Protein backbone atom coordinates (compact mmCIF):
# COMPACT_ATOMS: atom_id res chain seq x y z
CA UNK A 1 0.00 0.00 0.00
CA UNK A 2 2.83 2.39 0.86
CA UNK A 3 4.51 1.86 -2.53
CA UNK A 4 1.22 2.54 -4.34
CA UNK A 5 0.75 5.73 -2.33
CA UNK A 6 4.25 6.93 -3.23
CA UNK A 7 3.72 6.23 -6.92
CA UNK A 8 0.41 8.12 -6.84
CA UNK A 9 2.12 10.99 -5.04
CA UNK A 10 4.82 11.13 -7.71
CA UNK A 11 2.20 11.24 -10.44
CA UNK A 12 0.30 13.99 -8.66
CA UNK A 13 3.47 16.03 -8.27
CA UNK A 14 4.29 15.74 -11.94
CA UNK A 15 0.76 16.64 -13.05
CA UNK A 16 0.74 19.65 -10.71
CA UNK A 17 3.96 20.86 -12.31
CA UNK A 18 6.24 20.06 -9.35
CA UNK A 19 9.52 19.13 -10.98
CA UNK A 20 8.80 21.48 -13.86
CA UNK A 21 7.35 18.85 -16.22
CA UNK A 22 3.92 17.97 -17.52
CA UNK A 23 2.96 14.44 -18.42
CA UNK A 24 1.66 14.41 -21.97
CA UNK A 25 -0.76 11.53 -22.28
CA UNK A 26 -3.37 10.67 -24.87
CA UNK A 27 -6.34 9.60 -22.79
CA UNK A 28 -7.68 7.56 -25.65
CA UNK A 29 -4.47 5.55 -26.04
CA UNK A 30 -3.89 2.32 -24.21
CA UNK A 31 -1.24 2.44 -21.49
CA UNK A 32 2.07 0.88 -22.53
CA UNK A 33 3.16 -1.99 -20.33
CA UNK A 34 6.73 -1.32 -19.13
CA UNK A 35 9.47 -3.82 -19.91
CA UNK A 36 11.31 -2.82 -16.73
CA UNK A 37 9.86 -1.65 -13.40
CA UNK A 38 12.80 -0.44 -11.31
CA UNK A 39 13.20 0.88 -7.76
CA UNK A 40 14.92 4.10 -6.67
CA UNK A 41 15.91 4.70 -3.03
CA UNK A 42 15.92 8.23 -1.60
CA UNK A 43 16.19 8.95 2.13
CA UNK A 44 15.01 12.57 1.99
CA UNK A 45 11.34 13.71 2.17
CA UNK A 46 9.10 14.25 -0.83
CA UNK A 47 9.72 17.99 -1.19
CA UNK A 48 13.53 17.86 -0.87
CA UNK A 49 15.64 18.91 -3.91
CA UNK A 50 17.25 15.49 -4.32
CA UNK A 51 13.85 13.77 -4.19
CA UNK A 52 12.37 16.15 -6.75
CA UNK A 53 15.44 15.54 -8.89
CA UNK A 54 14.75 11.81 -8.66
CA UNK A 55 11.14 12.30 -9.79
CA UNK A 56 12.36 14.37 -12.74
CA UNK A 57 14.86 11.61 -13.63
CA UNK A 58 12.16 8.93 -13.49
CA UNK A 59 9.78 10.96 -15.60
CA UNK A 60 12.36 11.74 -18.28
CA UNK A 61 13.38 8.08 -18.53
CA UNK A 62 9.76 6.97 -18.82
CA UNK A 63 9.03 9.51 -21.54
CA UNK A 64 12.14 8.84 -23.61
CA UNK A 65 11.77 5.07 -23.50
CA UNK A 66 8.15 5.38 -24.61
CA UNK A 67 6.94 4.03 -21.27
CA UNK A 68 9.14 0.95 -21.48
CA UNK A 69 11.14 1.81 -18.34
CA UNK A 70 9.29 2.77 -15.18
CA UNK A 71 11.33 3.94 -12.18
CA UNK A 72 9.46 4.01 -8.89
CA UNK A 73 10.76 6.58 -6.38
CA UNK A 74 10.76 5.46 -2.73
CA UNK A 75 11.40 8.61 -0.69
CA UNK A 76 11.71 9.15 3.05
CA UNK A 77 14.12 6.25 3.58
CA UNK A 78 11.46 3.54 3.20
CA UNK A 79 14.03 1.26 1.51
CA UNK A 80 16.58 1.78 4.29
CA UNK A 81 19.41 4.17 5.17
CA UNK A 82 22.08 4.88 2.60
CA UNK A 83 24.69 2.27 3.52
CA UNK A 84 22.03 -0.44 3.61
CA UNK A 85 20.77 0.76 0.24
CA UNK A 86 24.23 0.48 -1.30
CA UNK A 87 24.63 -3.03 0.11
CA UNK A 88 21.32 -4.11 -1.45
CA UNK A 89 22.24 -2.56 -4.79
CA UNK A 90 25.32 -4.76 -5.07
CA UNK A 91 23.12 -7.77 -5.75
CA UNK A 92 20.30 -5.93 -7.53
CA UNK A 93 17.92 -5.70 -4.56
CA UNK A 94 17.53 -1.98 -5.32
CA UNK A 95 18.09 -0.57 -8.80
CA UNK A 96 18.83 3.16 -8.37
CA UNK A 97 19.63 5.51 -5.50
CA UNK A 98 20.87 8.94 -4.58
CA UNK A 99 23.55 8.73 -1.89
CA UNK A 100 26.13 10.92 -0.23
CA UNK A 101 29.67 9.97 -1.15
CA UNK A 102 30.28 9.47 2.58
CA UNK A 103 28.21 6.27 2.23
CA UNK A 104 30.66 5.00 -0.39
CA UNK A 105 33.99 6.17 1.00
CA UNK A 106 34.50 3.14 3.27
CA UNK A 107 34.56 0.96 0.16
CA UNK A 108 36.29 3.54 -2.06
CA UNK A 109 38.70 5.54 0.18
CA UNK A 110 39.62 7.83 -2.71
CA UNK A 111 36.21 9.51 -2.31
CA UNK A 112 37.41 10.92 1.02
CA UNK A 113 39.19 13.59 -1.01
CA UNK A 114 35.87 15.19 -1.95
CA UNK A 115 34.83 15.41 1.71
CA UNK A 116 37.82 17.47 2.81
CA UNK A 117 37.05 20.83 4.44
CA UNK A 118 37.79 24.09 2.62
CA UNK A 119 38.66 22.20 -0.56
CA UNK A 120 36.88 24.65 -2.85
CA UNK A 121 36.78 28.41 -3.21
CA UNK A 122 33.03 28.17 -3.84
CA UNK A 123 30.27 26.42 -5.76
CA UNK A 124 31.61 27.35 -9.19
CA UNK A 125 35.00 25.85 -8.33
CA UNK A 126 33.44 22.59 -7.14
CA UNK A 127 31.35 22.17 -10.29
CA UNK A 128 34.33 22.90 -12.53
CA UNK A 129 36.18 20.11 -10.74
CA UNK A 130 33.30 17.62 -10.75
CA UNK A 131 32.38 18.25 -14.38
CA UNK A 132 35.99 18.03 -15.57
CA UNK A 133 38.59 15.24 -15.80
CA UNK A 134 39.01 14.99 -12.01
CA UNK A 135 35.27 14.50 -11.49
CA UNK A 136 35.09 11.94 -14.29
CA UNK A 137 37.91 10.01 -12.66
CA UNK A 138 35.98 9.94 -9.39
CA UNK A 139 32.83 8.69 -11.13
CA UNK A 140 34.86 5.92 -12.74
CA UNK A 141 36.33 4.98 -9.35
CA UNK A 142 33.11 3.11 -8.59
CA UNK A 143 33.90 0.52 -11.27
CA UNK A 144 34.01 -2.96 -9.77
CA UNK A 145 32.18 -1.90 -6.58
CA UNK A 146 28.82 -3.34 -7.62
CA UNK A 147 27.31 0.07 -8.36
CA UNK A 148 27.82 2.51 -11.22
CA UNK A 149 27.84 6.32 -11.00
CA UNK A 150 25.43 8.23 -13.24
CA UNK A 151 25.68 11.87 -12.19
CA UNK A 152 26.60 14.32 -9.44
CA UNK A 153 23.92 15.85 -7.22
CA UNK A 154 24.29 18.98 -5.09
CA UNK A 155 24.00 18.98 -1.30
CA UNK A 156 24.74 22.62 -0.55
CA UNK A 157 27.50 23.91 1.71
CA UNK A 158 27.84 23.92 5.49
CA UNK A 159 28.70 27.09 7.39
CA UNK A 160 29.34 28.15 10.98
CA UNK A 161 26.81 30.06 13.08
CA UNK A 162 27.36 31.42 16.57
CA UNK A 163 25.57 32.82 19.62
CA UNK A 164 27.53 35.75 21.05
CA UNK A 165 29.89 37.02 18.36
CA UNK A 166 30.42 36.63 14.61
CA UNK A 167 33.23 34.54 13.15
CA UNK A 168 34.99 37.04 10.92
CA UNK A 169 38.53 35.69 10.99
CA UNK A 170 40.44 32.58 12.02
CA UNK A 171 41.25 33.96 15.46
CA UNK A 172 37.52 34.26 16.29
CA UNK A 173 37.09 30.47 16.22
CA UNK A 174 39.80 29.71 18.76
CA UNK A 175 38.43 28.48 22.08
CA UNK A 176 34.85 28.14 20.84
CA UNK A 177 32.77 25.07 21.70
CA UNK A 178 31.29 24.03 18.38
CA UNK A 179 28.70 21.32 17.81
CA UNK A 180 29.59 18.87 15.06
CA UNK A 181 28.18 15.64 13.70
CA UNK A 182 29.53 12.43 15.18
CA UNK A 183 32.28 12.33 12.57
CA UNK A 184 36.01 11.99 13.12
CA UNK A 185 36.66 14.25 10.14
CA UNK A 186 34.44 17.05 11.43
CA UNK A 187 36.02 16.80 14.88
CA UNK A 188 39.48 17.02 13.29
CA UNK A 189 38.43 20.06 11.24
CA UNK A 190 37.16 22.03 14.25
CA UNK A 191 40.19 21.14 16.37
CA UNK A 192 42.55 22.17 13.55
CA UNK A 193 40.93 25.61 13.71
CA UNK A 194 41.70 25.84 17.43
CA UNK A 195 38.17 25.22 18.72
CA UNK A 196 36.66 22.42 20.82
CA UNK A 197 34.44 19.98 18.94
CA UNK A 198 31.25 18.89 20.72
CA UNK A 199 29.63 15.89 18.95
CA UNK A 200 25.90 16.07 19.54
CA UNK A 201 22.60 14.80 18.12
CA UNK A 202 21.02 17.24 15.69
CA UNK A 203 17.79 17.40 17.71
CA UNK A 204 19.70 18.73 20.74
CA UNK A 205 21.43 21.64 19.01
CA UNK A 206 18.77 24.31 19.54
CA UNK A 207 18.62 23.88 23.31
CA UNK A 208 22.42 23.61 23.54
CA UNK A 209 22.81 26.95 21.75
CA UNK A 210 20.06 28.52 23.85
CA UNK A 211 21.48 27.38 27.21
CA UNK A 212 25.13 28.08 26.38
CA UNK A 213 26.33 24.46 26.36
CA UNK A 214 27.88 25.29 22.98
CA UNK A 215 28.97 28.56 21.43
CA UNK A 216 28.36 27.67 17.81
CA UNK A 217 27.24 25.00 15.36
CA UNK A 218 27.44 24.45 11.62
CA UNK A 219 25.02 23.52 8.87
CA UNK A 220 23.60 24.72 5.55
CA UNK A 221 21.24 27.68 5.01
CA UNK A 222 18.01 25.62 4.74
CA UNK A 223 18.72 23.72 7.97
CA UNK A 224 19.69 26.90 9.84
CA UNK A 225 16.37 28.37 8.73
CA UNK A 226 14.02 25.39 9.09
CA UNK A 227 15.26 24.36 12.56
CA UNK A 228 15.04 27.95 13.85
CA UNK A 229 18.67 28.00 14.96
CA UNK A 230 18.92 31.60 13.76
CA UNK A 231 16.72 32.59 16.71
CA UNK A 232 19.38 31.59 19.24
CA UNK A 233 22.54 31.89 17.11
CA UNK A 234 22.08 35.05 15.03
CA UNK A 235 25.60 35.25 13.56
CA UNK A 236 25.99 33.23 10.34
CA UNK A 237 29.40 32.98 8.66
CA UNK A 238 29.48 31.89 5.02
CA UNK A 239 32.77 30.01 5.14
CA UNK A 240 31.48 26.99 3.14
CA UNK A 241 33.83 24.67 5.01
CA UNK A 242 32.34 21.54 3.50
CA UNK A 243 30.75 20.90 0.13
CA UNK A 244 30.19 17.15 -0.03
CA UNK A 245 28.63 16.22 -3.39
CA UNK A 246 26.23 13.34 -3.80
CA UNK A 247 25.75 10.78 -6.56
CA UNK A 248 22.98 9.16 -8.48
CA UNK A 249 23.98 5.53 -8.81
CA UNK A 250 22.66 2.36 -10.43
CA UNK A 251 23.17 -1.29 -9.51
CA UNK A 252 25.65 -3.02 -11.83
CA UNK A 253 23.38 -6.08 -11.75
CA UNK A 254 20.52 -3.95 -13.04
CA UNK A 255 22.71 -2.19 -15.58
CA UNK A 256 23.77 -5.46 -17.16
CA UNK A 257 20.14 -6.39 -17.79
CA UNK A 258 19.30 -3.19 -19.66
CA UNK A 259 19.61 -2.83 -23.45
CA UNK A 260 22.26 -0.38 -24.64
CA UNK A 261 19.56 1.94 -25.97
CA UNK A 262 18.02 2.29 -22.51
CA UNK A 263 21.42 2.74 -20.86
CA UNK A 264 22.17 5.75 -23.05
CA UNK A 265 18.78 7.29 -22.24
CA UNK A 266 19.25 6.71 -18.51
CA UNK A 267 22.69 8.36 -18.51
CA UNK A 268 21.36 11.33 -20.44
CA UNK A 269 18.36 11.75 -18.12
CA UNK A 270 20.53 11.43 -15.01
CA UNK A 271 22.69 14.33 -16.19
CA UNK A 272 19.63 16.45 -17.01
CA UNK A 273 18.03 15.74 -13.64
CA UNK A 274 21.28 16.76 -11.94
CA UNK A 275 21.14 20.22 -13.53
CA UNK A 276 17.53 20.55 -12.40
CA UNK A 277 18.34 19.39 -8.85
CA UNK A 278 21.13 21.96 -8.62
CA UNK A 279 18.70 24.72 -9.62
CA UNK A 280 16.30 23.59 -6.89
CA UNK A 281 19.10 23.73 -4.31
CA UNK A 282 20.07 27.24 -5.35
CA UNK A 283 16.47 28.38 -5.06
CA UNK A 284 16.04 26.74 -1.65
CA UNK A 285 19.27 28.31 -0.35
CA UNK A 286 18.26 31.76 -1.61
CA UNK A 287 14.83 31.56 0.01
CA UNK A 288 16.28 30.42 3.36
CA UNK A 289 18.92 33.13 3.30
CA UNK A 290 16.36 35.83 2.59
CA UNK A 291 14.17 34.70 5.49
CA UNK A 292 16.94 34.74 8.08
CA UNK A 293 18.31 38.05 6.83
CA UNK A 294 14.84 39.58 7.20
CA UNK A 295 14.76 38.17 10.73
CA UNK A 296 17.73 40.39 11.53
CA UNK A 297 20.59 37.89 11.48
CA UNK A 298 24.12 39.12 10.97
CA UNK A 299 25.76 37.46 7.94
CA UNK A 300 29.53 37.39 7.45
CA UNK A 301 31.17 36.55 4.13
CA UNK A 302 34.90 35.83 4.04
CA UNK A 303 37.29 37.50 1.68
CA UNK A 304 39.32 35.09 -0.50
CA UNK A 305 42.37 35.91 1.64
CA UNK A 306 40.63 34.97 4.90
CA UNK A 307 39.22 31.80 3.42
CA UNK A 308 42.74 30.86 2.32
CA UNK A 309 43.87 31.10 5.97
CA UNK A 310 41.21 28.58 7.00
CA UNK A 311 42.21 26.33 4.11
CA UNK A 312 45.86 26.48 5.17
CA UNK A 313 44.86 25.32 8.66
CA UNK A 314 43.45 22.15 7.05
CA UNK A 315 46.75 20.89 5.63
CA UNK A 316 47.38 18.49 8.56
CA UNK A 317 43.82 17.17 8.16
CA UNK A 318 44.38 16.53 4.44
CA UNK A 319 47.56 14.65 5.27
CA UNK A 320 45.85 12.54 7.93
CA UNK A 321 42.84 11.49 5.87
CA UNK A 322 44.14 11.56 2.29
CA UNK A 323 47.87 10.85 2.47
CA UNK A 324 47.67 8.60 -0.62
CA UNK A 325 45.82 11.21 -2.66
CA UNK A 326 47.60 14.47 -1.90
CA UNK A 327 48.35 14.91 -5.61
CA UNK A 328 44.61 15.08 -6.34
CA UNK A 329 44.04 17.52 -3.49
CA UNK A 330 46.83 19.74 -4.76
CA UNK A 331 45.34 19.67 -8.27
CA UNK A 332 41.98 20.82 -6.89
CA UNK A 333 43.53 23.52 -4.69
CA UNK A 334 45.68 24.80 -7.54
CA UNK A 335 42.67 25.06 -9.83
CA UNK A 336 40.96 27.16 -7.18
CA UNK A 337 43.97 29.43 -6.78
CA UNK A 338 44.20 29.93 -10.54
CA UNK A 339 40.54 30.88 -10.78
CA UNK A 340 41.01 33.56 -8.11
CA UNK A 341 44.01 34.96 -9.96
CA UNK A 342 42.18 35.07 -13.30
CA UNK A 343 41.11 38.57 -14.45
In terms of topology, how is this protein built?
Layout: H1 2-16, E1 36-41, H2 49-64, E2 69-74, H3 82-89, E3 96-100, H4 123-130, H5 133-140, E4 147-153, E5 158-162, H6 170-173, E6 177-180, H7 184-192, E7 196-199, H8 205-211, E8 216-219, H9 221-226, E9 235-242, E10 246-251, H10 252-257, H11 260-294, E11 298-301, H12 304-313, H13 315-321, H14 326-341
Parallel strand pairs: 1-2, 1-3, 6-7, 9-11
Antiparallel strand pairs: 3-10, 4-10, 5-8, 5-9
Helix pairs in contact: 2-11
Task: Describe the protein in words.
There is one protein chain. The chain is α/β, with parallel strands linked by helices and 343 residues long. The protein has 14 helices and eleven strands. Strands 2-1-3-10-4 form a five-stranded mixed β-sheet, with helices on both faces. It has a four-stranded mixed β-sheet with strand order 8-5-9-11. β1 (36-41), α2 (49-64) and β2 (69-74) form a beta-alpha-beta unit. α2 packs antiparallel against α11. The longest helix has 35 residues, at 260-294.
Question: What is this structure, in a nutshell?
Answer:
With 343 residues, the chain is of the alpha/beta class. The chain is built from 14 helices and eleven strands.
Amino acid sequence: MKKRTLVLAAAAMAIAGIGGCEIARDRGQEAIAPEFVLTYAENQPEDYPTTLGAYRFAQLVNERTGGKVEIQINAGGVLGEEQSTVAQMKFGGIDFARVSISSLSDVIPKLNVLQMPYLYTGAEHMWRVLEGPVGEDFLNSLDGSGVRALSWYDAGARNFYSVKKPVERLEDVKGMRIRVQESDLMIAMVEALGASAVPMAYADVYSALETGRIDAAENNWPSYDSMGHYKVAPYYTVDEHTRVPEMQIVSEATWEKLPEEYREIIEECARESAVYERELWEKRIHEAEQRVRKAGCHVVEFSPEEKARFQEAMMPVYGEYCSDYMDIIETILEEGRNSLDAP
